[in-house]
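Why should sequence recovery work at all? Because a backbone constrains its sequence more than one might expect. Tight turns favour small or flexible residues, buried strands favour hydrophobic ones, and helices have their own preferences. The token representation captures these environments compactly. In the example below, the structure is given first.
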């Protein structure tokens, strides 16, 4: 199955239905199947998204080791090139570091002015203790006490504070943005398309290493340029 999928990709066939058709009617695919029954498109799709996804990295490095054993790679020179590939995440799901840090600073300032606290642990403990002295009411026609209104306001600030800190934690130290629907993707300026649109899009920085005309290394990074990717990739 793996041979069929790889060979199909080399031939420009990516659809599971097209791969099924090739296995039924093309002699080269029949030879790869070694007399076995042609798989249907559902089997191909399940293998590609299931077992193949789990094994693909190990299979790639088995291939690299096999090239080494055959003496095909000499290691005297490795050529590295990179490209940016757009993520399937939504383009308008961005989270920017500067914006998050700005909003976080405002929340911290509001909390400190109201309570004097400078950490979420202090604020959470105070809210839990303060809640014991409040009779909470909900629904139309019921008037909230000043204490409940203050408790709800500070609870909302605490929630936003923790949310912003989680966003910064997701970003880490090495990048300034990420996508909400694909947290591994960073917003990068890609090459202009046919409409000359050069806006920032969620993407990955893919680095490829070529040794003796064989691809022997590949890695994905969320850095926008290649400066920080060289050492970890090597």
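From this structural description, the recovered sequence reads:
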């Amino acid at each position: 199955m793996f041979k069929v999928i790889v060979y199909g990709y080399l031939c420009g066939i990516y659809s599971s239905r097209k791969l099924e058709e090739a296995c039924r009617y093309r002699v080269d695919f029949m030879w790869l199947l070694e007399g076995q029954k042609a798989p249907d498109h559902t089997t191909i799709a399940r293998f590609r998204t299931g077992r193949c996804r789990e094994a693909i990295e190990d299979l790639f490095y088995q291939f690299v080791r096999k090239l080494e054993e055959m003496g095909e790679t000499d290691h005297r020179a490795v050529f590295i090139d990179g490209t940016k590939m757009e993520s399937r995440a939504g383009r308008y799901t961005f989270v920017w570091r500067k914006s998050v840090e700005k909003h976080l600073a405002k929340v911290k300032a509001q909390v400190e002015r109201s309570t004097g606290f400078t950490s979420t642990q202090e604020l959470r403990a105070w809210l839990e203790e303060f809640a014991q002295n409040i009779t909470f009411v909900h629904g139309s026609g019921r008037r909230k006490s000043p204490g409940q209104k203050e408790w709800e306001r500070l609870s909302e600030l605490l929630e936003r504070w923790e949310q912003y800190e989680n966003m910064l934690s997701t970003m880490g130290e090495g990048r300034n943005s990420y996508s909400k629907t694909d947290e591994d993707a960073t917003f990068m300026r890609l090459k202009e398309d046919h409409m000359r649109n050069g806006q920032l899009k969620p993407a990955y920085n893919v680095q490829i290493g070529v040794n003796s005309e064989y691809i022997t290394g590949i890695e994905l990074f969320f850095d926008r340029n290649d400066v920080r990717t060289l050492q970890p990739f090597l």
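A few observations help interpret the result. The longest strand covers residues 200-211.
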